[in-house]
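Entry 12.
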Amino acid sequence: MPKRILIDCDPGIDDALALALAHGSPELDVMGLTTVGGNTDLDRTTENARCLADYYGLVVPVVRGAGRPLVRAPRTARDVHGESGLGGVLLPPATTPPDDRHAVDFIVDALAAAPGEISLVAVGPLTNIALALHKEPRIAEWAAEFVVMGGSYTRGNNTPAAEFNIAADPEAAAVAFDAPWRPVMIGLDLTHQARANAEVRTRFRGLGRLETELISPCLDFYGQHPSYRDGGPAIHDACAVAYVIAPELFRTAPARVDVETWGRFTSGMTVTDFAAPEPNTDVATDLAADRFWDLVTEAFTRVAEHLPA
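Predicted 3D structure (tokens):
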């Protein structure tokens, strides 16, 4: 039976590829997308999620969430993802009517209705997750697992110390990591093992419209960023989805993860202690990269074969 998954996202180039992986994987049953401001503003991340769902033929609720961090001014990653959030990709306007619920209510209600059955995957800033925990702390018991694309134990990308999703709302991330569940942290140390270099991109030839209209424009735009010029862009968010599909592709280690919220130079840093006597997180450290790309390619092929006209 497929695993049910709820994806909290901020599309976003790598979000777009993560959603294709989820939709094209028979191991998953995507039961909803919630949106948050992050890679670009909330209006655009929500519209992007709706457009991507329509483009893929992914028929699920797309539910708008928080547009700003808990206490800080909003920040975006338009320098990486472009003004639209999807780089050079031009998708048809969304035709599915917008959902009138709030993402926080949707998350709480979905997990409450099926305790222990839904994997919650967050691939954007953790604002919606923190608000959902504030509204109903029991979601930490009800989620089958909580997988976060965010953080790092050796580096940053938004600042020298902090990864973007955590740095965008450190207070929310602190709430999420302090809750009584055991997050899986898919951070930069892991995602940089999933680089879409020239050899990887040969796998996507022959995928027709999916390749020409989405995959190549995404990766071409993403790869222009200085941090990706050597080795190809890392498709961060797809790694979190892949963990839900095939956790055996990942090596994890228990650690205590605390989020720095005060540091002048380190705000948003995920301070990771692998020697802590009471770990609160499973931190992904190693990826079986060839098998990961096999998984991605197979999913993309299924999506390509069933794109709506």
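Annotation: The mean pLDDT is 96. The beta strands are 3-9, 28-35, 62-64, 118-122, 145-149, 184-186, 250-259, 270-273, 281-287.
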